[in-house]
Amino acid sequence: MNIDGAGNRVNSITFGPGKVILVSGFNKLVEDIQEAIKRIKNVVTPMNARRLKIDVPCAKTENVRIATPSTVVPAMVILERKPLLTELLVILVGEELGY
Questions:
Q1: Rounded to whole angstroms, how far apart are CA atoms 68 and 56?
Q2: What is the pLDDT of residues 64-84, one digit of tens each?
Q3: Which residues are registered as beta bridge partners of 29?
Q4: Positive or negative, the Cα torsion across 44, 93, 22, 88?
Q5: Where are the domains of the chain?
Q6: pTM over 0.85
Q7: Integer Cα distance of 19 and 9 in angstroms
Q8: SS3 for 90?
Q9: Which backbone phi and psi does 90 adopt, to 5 degrees?
């Protein structure tokens, strides 16, 4: 699962370049899709909104569920398998990277 505020980064994962390399820290591994969405809404989005100084409710309350329609996560992509036209490599790093 990947998220993006503008959509350009998640778009390039599914279509565009012939080869995509994703590098992720172990802190982003979760049990299932529901846990991924929960982590995005309750950890990632509030931290990123504060970092970018975006004035949305989740930046103040750490709960994106009360965010306005102009939330900072308009694009969310879930890959069940690699896209047909894209070679995909996932590299897991044994430390925390980002949030």
A1: 7
A2: 555 444 466 778 889 888 888
A3: none
A4: negative
A5: 2-93
A6: no
A7: 14
A8: strand
A9: -110, 125
| DSSP string across 44-59 | IHHHHHHHTT---HHH
Give the CA distances from residue 73 to residues 45, 69, 81, 94, in Å, rounded to whole numbers and listed in that order.
7, 10, 22, 27
- Kindly tell me the burial class for residue 3, based on how many C-beta atoms sit within 10 Å of its own C-beta (0-12, 13-18, 19 or more): buried
Q: Which residue has the tokens 């929960």?
A: 38
pLDDT of residue 42: 81
**Beta pairing partners, 93:** 25
Helices (H), the chain: 8-14, 33-39, 45-51, 57-61
Backbone angles phi, psi at 30, to 5 degrees: -135, 170
| Cα 62 from Cα 90, distance rounded (Å) | 29
Asked if residue 10 lies in contact with residue 83, where contact means CB atoms within 8 angstroms, the answer is no
Six token digits for residue 58: 């989740």
